[in-house]
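In practice, a research group might receive sequence data for several interacting partners and want a quick structural hypothesis before committing to experiments. The following worked case mirrors that situation: the sequences arrive first, and a predicted assembly follows.
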Amino acid sequence: MIRELSKNEVSALHYELVMKDIIAAAEKLPPFPDVAWKLTAMIKQMAPVSELEKIIGLDPALAATILRLSRSAYYGRRFDVRSLKDAILLLGNQRLLQVVISACALRYFEKGGAGPGERELWEHSVATAIISEIISRKFKKGRVLTLYTASLLHDIGKTILNVYAKIYMQSSIRRMRSEGRCIQVERMALGIDHQELGGIIARNWKFPPEIIAAIAHHHDPESGPFWEIASVVYAADKLADEAVKEKGQTRENPLDPDKDMVFKNLGITSKIAEEIKTEFAGHLAGVKKMLE
Ligand SMILES: [Fe+2]
Ligand SMILES: [Fe+2]
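A structural hypothesis for the assembly, expressed as tokens:
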């Protein structure tokens, strides 16, 4: 017998189809280049500079981005980096790996055509990564590279979800999203949110479990494993939003670290949050130049 589907059944079917489509798009993303992990292993084994150079040089486009980032005021600071060899010798292992991971990650943010939305998202991701590095050093929390990678890619789910958001989200929903209720709104409109999708992407990329957890729980860090790493990403994310906020711009839900449980658990008071923002502001001009 044929019967007409109820409104609820139609919307359940719609959710299922949209969600399947979104997850399929996430699974089609090219694998994350393993050059950074290869380099980490080679550095541990004290491989010669020429070998490190050879591995980076295997992907000329990536090597060019690595060189460009290495010359930036933020990563290169006081060095005059003229070649890959200089980058390897002068930046130091930690900075070199951060540059390599940034160059790898940039590809996924550019794939949407680097429109204003993608650019803004990339800038926000870099700011979050740098602030997480500041928190990590200040509080001796987590490994810098783990936090840097998780923070840089915390919103990776948005690179896919944004495409669907443009199709399915009404303007009122878009407004709610910009007011900070993005997780609820995305789930309501698309059946999945960007942190869950980010977790799926990080799992497909075979990232370490602490990075997967931090990406998948960065809006609700205490709901998953590795809560401390996810909490740093959460705090860095919020502080990055605050730090790049236009002067005089107000928010619907302004950040108050003294009332936020995650900030409290990390020991980041309003005063410390201000210090972190000031330290980041010192890097901001260099970071902006690098992103040009
Ligand atoms: Fe997010
Ligand atoms: Fe974010």
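Before designing any experiment, note the following. The chain has a mean pLDDT of 86. The chain has one domain: 8-291.
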